[in-house]
Structure prediction request, 482 residues.
Amino acid sequence: MSFLFFFLRLYINQNRMTLPPGKYTPEEVAWFRHIFDTYYESIRSFAYFKTGNLDFADDIVQETFLKIWSMRGSIREETVKALLYTIAGNIIKNHYKHLKVEYSFQKENSMESPSESADAEVRMSELNAQLQQALAEIPPGSREVFLMNRIEGLSYAEIAERLNLSVKAIEKRMSEALRVLRERFKYKI
Amino acid sequence: MTSDNQNSDDLNNKELEQFLSEMKGVKVPPSSRSKEDAWRLLMQSVVEEESKVVSMSNSRVWYAIAASVVIFIVAGWSYAWFSTTEKYAPKGYVSDVVLPDGTQIKLNADSKISYPKFFNLVGRKFTLEGEAFFRVMPGEKFTVKDSQNRTVEVLGTEFNVNTRGTVFKVACYQGSVKVHTPETDNVKLTSGLKFESVDGVSAVNSFQSDSISSPSWINGEFYFEGAKLSEVIAELEVQFNVTIVVEGFNPEERIYSGFFRNNNLENAIELVTLPMGLNYEITPDSSKVIISK
Prediction:
């Protein structure tokens, strides 16, 4: 009798592996995979810009996409992008507030020789220290806009779309960030 | 902007330009897990989430169990409410019913009474066809209803109810009862008062209750005063379990005053027919009586 149960459980577990229980279609999974492929890096960057912590950023990505999955029945295609950022923003607001944001960026890997890359590392840590100090003074709202533009390379229009803001608002935040930086370099001299 | 600001901007531009151009090659460090690992982890969470939904429907099973328990209770309760006990006194017999609460009911011949099996739970509600005498123990409300929705509400007492045919007679021997019919409002009877409704005409009259503490039929005596002969014949039929055939006259139109006892058929028939100048004939097996002019 217990043998039977053992095999029954084995059978059920196997079934779980291949065909997870729940009410969703292969199309839904494909759609989800597409969303994930398209926005994984962006959301992760956004979360990093907001929290300055790589582990947090990974967790936020997971939470954000899981939330999107649970909402899959009621999402309009054209709103997915902005929705992802809104969800990520809310998760950060609710679970990751009052963080001491400490960035540690990397230089894009170039075809430098080992000796040169050692030199680059030194330069990078210098730049990071500089960035850390400079960015810390930019108010949060403007900071991630600045980083999205300068590091992720998104256009104002693209950022506006993602954050559900007007291009005017993005321009305002960018100029705010640049104003702070300008101020900073003034005193440095 | 003021020219002063403009100047300082120009002064700092170089530094800023350099800083911004330094930033150009900068990027967010890669994750400790690969994108594919991140996807796998995500799908794992999705599966967990979905099975949570499945286990949510397990709680539906609990709802179902709770619901069936409720249904079970309701069913049991309605069983207690609707299941009734029936007592029937056949023709030729008078039977005694004693209820668990001590209430005594004397059921006249060819009479049926039904009441809830668990009447101290559900209430003392009785339905009567025929005639019965009640000696009710004081306690909860006690009601007797007949098939035509005429009710007697008892306030702890002794009373007789007769619902034979179209007749509805209630006589109160002790205490008081309330009578309610579709045609009349509540009529309160105290001891010595009787309520009679024959063919829709109802009246309250007094009767001698000092000398008698219970209706005479209980002792096997049947008194009639100005009663239709048909009523008397019906009572005879029931008491002796005989069929009475009438020839040559209409018993509805003859009025009888008198009495009979239910211990001897021939004596009883004689007591009824002789004063009215009627002849009778009893078949040898005592199952049929022919009354003729």
Remarks:
- The interface with chain A takes residues 8-9, 11-12, 15-16, 19-20, 22-33, 35, 38-39, 41-43, 45-47, 49-51, 53-54 of chain B (CB under 8 Å).
- The longest strand of chain B covers residues 221-228.
- The mean pLDDT of chain B is 81.
- Residues 220-292 of chain B form a domain with the Phage tail protein beta-alpha-beta fold fold (CATH 3.55.50.30).
